[in-house]
Design brief:
The chain is of the alpha+beta class and 210 residues long. It folds into two domains: 50-118, wza like fold (2-Layer Sandwich), CATH 3.30.1950; 123-205, Roll (Outer membrane lipoprotein wza fold like), CATH 3.10.560. Helices cover 24% and strands 24% of the residues. It has helices spanning 2-24, 91-105, 146-152, 183-187; strands at residues 53-58, 66-69, 75-78, 82-85, 112-118, 123-128, 134-137, 165-170, 176-181, 202-205. The strands form three sheets. Strands 7-6-10-8-9 form a five-stranded mixed beta sheet, with helices on one face. The chain has a three-stranded antiparallel beta sheet with strand order 2-1-5, with helices on one face. Strand 1 (53-58) and strand 2 (66-69) form a beta hairpin. It is elongated and about 70 Å long. The protein starts with a helix and ends in a 5-residue tail after the last strand.
Protein backbone atom coordinates (compact mmCIF):
# COMPACT_ATOMS: atom_id res chain seq x y z
CA UNK A 1 0.00 0.00 0.00
CA UNK A 2 2.84 2.39 0.88
CA UNK A 3 4.54 1.68 -2.43
CA UNK A 4 1.32 2.49 -4.38
CA UNK A 5 0.95 5.77 -2.45
CA UNK A 6 4.58 6.73 -3.19
CA UNK A 7 4.05 6.00 -6.90
CA UNK A 8 0.87 8.16 -6.93
CA UNK A 9 2.73 11.09 -5.28
CA UNK A 10 5.63 10.69 -7.70
CA UNK A 11 3.35 10.81 -10.78
CA UNK A 12 1.50 13.85 -9.38
CA UNK A 13 4.75 15.76 -8.82
CA UNK A 14 6.01 14.94 -12.34
CA UNK A 15 2.70 16.09 -13.88
CA UNK A 16 2.88 19.44 -12.04
CA UNK A 17 6.51 19.99 -13.11
CA UNK A 18 5.66 19.25 -16.74
CA UNK A 19 2.82 21.80 -16.64
CA UNK A 20 5.08 24.51 -15.18
CA UNK A 21 7.83 23.92 -17.76
CA UNK A 22 5.34 23.99 -20.63
CA UNK A 23 3.81 27.28 -19.48
CA UNK A 24 7.20 28.89 -18.84
CA UNK A 25 8.90 27.96 -22.14
CA UNK A 26 9.36 30.86 -24.57
CA UNK A 27 11.01 31.12 -27.97
CA UNK A 28 14.26 33.16 -27.88
CA UNK A 29 14.59 36.06 -30.28
CA UNK A 30 16.70 35.42 -33.38
CA UNK A 31 20.14 37.05 -33.37
CA UNK A 32 21.75 38.08 -36.66
CA UNK A 33 25.33 37.01 -37.41
CA UNK A 34 27.94 38.00 -39.96
CA UNK A 35 27.18 34.86 -42.00
CA UNK A 36 23.76 33.27 -42.32
CA UNK A 37 24.39 29.92 -40.64
CA UNK A 38 21.88 27.08 -40.23
CA UNK A 39 20.51 26.90 -36.69
CA UNK A 40 20.78 23.55 -34.93
CA UNK A 41 18.33 22.98 -32.10
CA UNK A 42 19.58 21.87 -28.68
CA UNK A 43 19.46 18.10 -28.38
CA UNK A 44 18.97 15.64 -25.57
CA UNK A 45 21.10 13.28 -27.68
CA UNK A 46 24.40 14.94 -26.74
CA UNK A 47 27.00 12.19 -26.77
CA UNK A 48 28.99 12.02 -23.57
CA UNK A 49 32.72 12.79 -23.75
CA UNK A 50 35.67 12.33 -21.40
CA UNK A 51 35.84 15.10 -18.75
CA UNK A 52 32.09 15.77 -18.84
CA UNK A 53 30.87 16.28 -15.25
CA UNK A 54 27.48 14.69 -14.51
CA UNK A 55 25.06 14.66 -11.63
CA UNK A 56 22.96 11.59 -10.94
CA UNK A 57 19.89 11.62 -8.74
CA UNK A 58 17.52 8.78 -7.93
CA UNK A 59 14.09 9.80 -6.65
CA UNK A 60 13.73 9.14 -2.91
CA UNK A 61 17.24 7.63 -2.78
CA UNK A 62 19.32 10.61 -1.64
CA UNK A 63 22.28 8.44 -0.65
CA UNK A 64 22.77 7.58 -4.35
CA UNK A 65 23.17 11.23 -5.45
CA UNK A 66 26.56 11.66 -7.06
CA UNK A 67 28.66 14.05 -9.13
CA UNK A 68 30.64 11.91 -11.53
CA UNK A 69 33.16 12.49 -14.28
CA UNK A 70 33.40 10.63 -17.57
CA UNK A 71 36.84 9.03 -17.66
CA UNK A 72 39.26 8.99 -20.56
CA UNK A 73 38.04 5.53 -21.55
CA UNK A 74 34.39 6.67 -21.63
CA UNK A 75 33.29 5.09 -18.35
CA UNK A 76 31.55 6.33 -15.22
CA UNK A 77 31.56 4.78 -11.75
CA UNK A 78 28.25 4.54 -9.87
CA UNK A 79 27.32 3.27 -6.38
CA UNK A 80 26.16 -0.37 -6.26
CA UNK A 81 26.48 -0.74 -10.05
CA UNK A 82 30.19 -0.04 -10.45
CA UNK A 83 31.77 0.85 -13.80
CA UNK A 84 29.45 1.70 -16.70
CA UNK A 85 30.58 2.11 -20.32
CA UNK A 86 29.04 5.26 -21.88
CA UNK A 87 30.97 5.38 -25.16
CA UNK A 88 28.75 6.48 -28.08
CA UNK A 89 25.84 6.96 -25.68
CA UNK A 90 23.81 10.13 -25.21
CA UNK A 91 22.73 11.59 -21.88
CA UNK A 92 19.25 10.12 -22.25
CA UNK A 93 20.54 6.71 -23.37
CA UNK A 94 22.90 6.59 -20.39
CA UNK A 95 20.11 7.65 -18.02
CA UNK A 96 17.89 4.84 -19.28
CA UNK A 97 20.70 2.29 -19.09
CA UNK A 98 21.47 3.28 -15.48
CA UNK A 99 17.77 3.07 -14.62
CA UNK A 100 17.61 -0.46 -16.00
CA UNK A 101 20.73 -1.55 -14.10
CA UNK A 102 19.34 -0.30 -10.77
CA UNK A 103 15.92 -1.79 -11.54
CA UNK A 104 17.40 -5.19 -12.38
CA UNK A 105 19.26 -5.84 -9.16
CA UNK A 106 18.79 -3.13 -6.54
CA UNK A 107 15.66 -0.93 -6.68
CA UNK A 108 12.00 -1.24 -7.63
CA UNK A 109 11.06 0.99 -10.57
CA UNK A 110 13.77 3.63 -9.87
CA UNK A 111 13.37 7.16 -11.26
CA UNK A 112 16.85 8.18 -12.41
CA UNK A 113 17.79 11.73 -13.43
CA UNK A 114 21.12 12.40 -15.15
CA UNK A 115 22.22 15.93 -16.10
CA UNK A 116 25.45 17.46 -17.37
CA UNK A 117 26.86 19.96 -14.87
CA UNK A 118 29.90 20.85 -16.95
CA UNK A 119 30.72 19.98 -20.52
CA UNK A 120 34.17 18.91 -21.66
CA UNK A 121 35.83 21.51 -23.87
CA UNK A 122 34.83 21.05 -27.50
CA UNK A 123 36.19 23.39 -30.12
CA UNK A 124 37.32 23.84 -33.71
CA UNK A 125 40.00 26.23 -35.00
CA UNK A 126 39.11 28.83 -37.62
CA UNK A 127 42.10 30.44 -39.34
CA UNK A 128 42.90 32.48 -42.44
CA UNK A 129 40.70 35.17 -43.95
CA UNK A 130 38.18 35.64 -41.16
CA UNK A 131 37.89 38.77 -39.05
CA UNK A 132 38.73 37.07 -35.74
CA UNK A 133 40.76 33.87 -36.25
CA UNK A 134 40.36 31.79 -33.10
CA UNK A 135 39.23 28.58 -31.48
CA UNK A 136 35.43 28.39 -31.64
CA UNK A 137 33.72 26.37 -28.92
CA UNK A 138 30.69 24.20 -29.56
CA UNK A 139 27.48 25.42 -27.91
CA UNK A 140 26.32 23.18 -25.07
CA UNK A 141 24.36 20.14 -26.29
CA UNK A 142 24.50 21.41 -29.87
CA UNK A 143 26.31 20.67 -33.04
CA UNK A 144 28.24 23.27 -35.02
CA UNK A 145 28.25 23.80 -38.78
CA UNK A 146 31.05 25.20 -40.90
CA UNK A 147 29.18 28.47 -41.60
CA UNK A 148 28.26 28.91 -37.96
CA UNK A 149 31.90 28.49 -36.90
CA UNK A 150 33.00 31.08 -39.46
CA UNK A 151 30.29 33.45 -38.23
CA UNK A 152 31.51 33.03 -34.63
CA UNK A 153 35.01 33.89 -35.86
CA UNK A 154 33.78 37.25 -37.14
CA UNK A 155 32.78 36.20 -40.65
CA UNK A 156 34.73 36.32 -43.89
CA UNK A 157 37.05 39.21 -44.67
CA UNK A 158 36.68 41.02 -48.02
CA UNK A 159 39.71 39.07 -49.30
CA UNK A 160 38.30 35.63 -48.43
CA UNK A 161 38.06 33.01 -51.17
CA UNK A 162 34.69 31.62 -50.17
CA UNK A 163 34.58 28.95 -52.87
CA UNK A 164 37.72 27.15 -51.62
CA UNK A 165 37.38 26.89 -47.86
CA UNK A 166 39.45 24.03 -46.47
CA UNK A 167 38.26 21.70 -43.74
CA UNK A 168 41.04 19.64 -42.18
CA UNK A 169 39.85 16.65 -40.17
CA UNK A 170 41.63 13.62 -38.74
CA UNK A 171 40.34 10.21 -39.76
CA UNK A 172 39.96 7.19 -37.46
CA UNK A 173 43.71 6.56 -37.64
CA UNK A 174 44.59 10.16 -36.76
CA UNK A 175 45.69 11.05 -40.30
CA UNK A 176 44.66 14.59 -41.41
CA UNK A 177 42.28 14.66 -44.39
CA UNK A 178 41.58 17.93 -46.24
CA UNK A 179 38.22 18.75 -47.84
CA UNK A 180 37.73 21.76 -50.15
CA UNK A 181 34.27 23.30 -49.68
CA UNK A 182 32.43 25.91 -51.70
CA UNK A 183 31.02 28.00 -48.83
CA UNK A 184 29.31 30.31 -51.33
CA UNK A 185 26.90 27.49 -52.17
CA UNK A 186 26.24 26.92 -48.47
CA UNK A 187 25.47 30.61 -47.95
CA UNK A 188 23.08 30.63 -50.90
CA UNK A 189 21.53 27.35 -49.75
CA UNK A 190 22.32 25.61 -53.04
CA UNK A 191 24.05 22.74 -51.26
CA UNK A 192 22.30 20.09 -49.17
CA UNK A 193 25.43 19.43 -47.09
CA UNK A 194 25.76 21.84 -44.16
CA UNK A 195 29.11 20.30 -43.13
CA UNK A 196 28.51 19.55 -39.48
CA UNK A 197 31.83 19.88 -37.68
CA UNK A 198 33.68 17.51 -35.38
CA UNK A 199 35.80 18.34 -32.34
CA UNK A 200 39.31 19.56 -33.28
CA UNK A 201 38.44 20.25 -36.93
CA UNK A 202 40.46 23.06 -38.53
CA UNK A 203 38.77 25.49 -40.94
CA UNK A 204 41.13 27.45 -43.17
CA UNK A 205 39.77 30.29 -45.28
CA UNK A 206 42.27 31.13 -48.05
CA UNK A 207 42.94 34.56 -49.55
CA UNK A 208 41.33 35.47 -52.85
CA UNK A 209 43.80 36.46 -55.55
CA UNK A 210 42.75 39.73 -57.24
Amino acid sequence: MAQIFRRFVRLTVYSLLASVLTLGAQEPEAVSTAVAAPIIAPSADYLLRPSDILQMRVFQEDDLTREISVSGDFTISLPLIGTVDVKNRSVRQTEEMVRQLYDRDFLVNPQVSLIVLKYAERAVNVIGQVNTPRAVEFPAERGLTLLEAIARAGGFTRLAERSKVKLIRKDDKGVPVTYTINAEKLINATSDNTWTLQVDDVIEVPERFL
